[in-house]
Amino acid sequence: MEELAINGGPRTRDAAKPWPSVGDSSGRMFGAEEIALLEQVIHSGCLFRYGGTMVDTFEAEMAAKYGVPHALAVTSGSAAVHVAVAALDLDVGDEVITTTVTDAGTVIGILQCNCVPVFADVDRRTMNLRPDGIEAAVSDRSRAIVAVHLFGQPAPMDEILAIAAHYNLYVIEDCAQAHGATLDGKLVGTIGDLGAFSMQQSKQMATGDGGMVIAEDDRLAARARMFHDKFFDRRGEYRGYERLGINYRMNELTGAVALAQLRKMDEILARRRASAGHLLDRLRTIEGIVPPWMHPRAEHAWWIFSFQIDEEILGCTVDEFTAAIQAEGLPFGTGYAGGIPICMYPFLAERRAYGTGHFPWEPPFGRDVHYLAEDYPDTYWAQANTLITNWNEGFTIDDAEDIARGLEKVAGYFRARK
Questions:
Q1: What CA dihedral angle connects 221, 222, 223 and 225, to 10 degrees?
Q2: What backbone phi and psi angles, to 5 degrees, belong to 74?
Q3: How high is the pLDDT of residue 98?
């Protein structure tokens, strides 16, 4: 048996052969199409979305691709969630249930609407929301659920929608990591009341920063559009600023890149699915490796590739296994977004939203909600026991095979050592 690299043996992946990265062109599909549209914007002399054509065209093509009547381009994924929550017209202290495993961008918009985020524990296999965790989090102040499609895999939307219908809650889908993912053939973002997307540098469709809100409902879409543009009526009749809004307008330069990326989305997803699918098939043959659990009626968009191990079969801990595969040159580690529940970060755990008080949590505004680590055992387990790596369209079948060979080598070593 070949000696492990951590013990002085040869690496599976040569250090001189870097993995494709979303941080540069090795893992991104930027090129002539983006340049051509950017040139059109510069030559037009109009970089503002009102008066230009790129953002309007992007919104129209996004709406058509997702089969919805309304698509609204904004400045970031965080802005998209903020706009979606604002469109619900909730009251101060109302509660929005979401997941413990996500980026702060899912939560910031809830607080900026002066609402209280409440967190539900997750499924150990996927780190997506668990329906019984959502139901346990419902109170008489609950008004909405923000479901995150983590790592590119749809959350259990059938169960989430059933809970929402029972308690009369809105459902926002945070699709930041899941462009093009489907459940029962339906694109995520079209299943709940509103869909929020990110186009940050690392996402399947990237513009550096950017976002999108989609909706079926005319009223919600109208409120979202007004809110994202300072609640200013641009219908031709000046009526002033009707309510509090914000400036989240996308500019024409970002719109040009977004339009080019949207037109490439099918190819981007095909590349990710081909390489990830090869690795998934290979992992299913390696004793002691637990491949990512796949929803049987879903199509994954592969923002992150994850797996777990069976410590009993391998006779090693997750930490030992992680150290060994990293020494082989494999790009995996444990702990997404810091490896703790999002609500354990100081701005939430210590309820630091505004000034020195605890608004909007504190009575009489909110219900005096507190976040306790012991309430999220499955989040802690999954964060410590799930190995993850970013996945992108730059990964090839050969890259996936290198990962599989490294995992075979390390798993075989530990099984033999037992």
A1: 80
A2: -135, -175
A3: 98
CA dist., res. 219 & res. 240, Å (int):
20
Which residue type is seen at 101?
V
CATH architecture of 32-263: 3-Layer(aba) Sandwich (3.40)
Cα–Cα dist 98/185, whole Å: 24
Percent of the chain with pLDDT over 70: 99
Q: Are strands 182-183 and 298-299 parallel, antiparallel or unpaired?
A: antiparallel
Does 291 score more than 70 pLDDT?
A: yes
Largest CA-CA distance found in the chain, in angstroms, rounded: 77
* Three-class SS of 176-228: CCCCCCEECCEECCCCCCEEEEECECCCCCCCECCEEEEECCHHHHHHHHHHH
The pTM score is 0.96
DSSP summary character for residue 30: -
- pLDDT-based confidence at 238, cuts 50/70/90? low
**Integer Cα distance of 107 and 89 in angstroms:** 17
**Averaged pLDDT for residues 362-374:** 96
Residue labelled with tokens 């098939």: 281
Nearest to 194 by CA among 144, 159, 155: 144
| Residue-range domain boundaries for the chain | 32-263
Instruction: Express each pLDDT in 166-212 by its tens digit.
Output: 999 999 999 999 999 999 999 999 999 999 999 999 999 999 999 99
36 neighbors 256 (Cβ within 8 angstroms): no
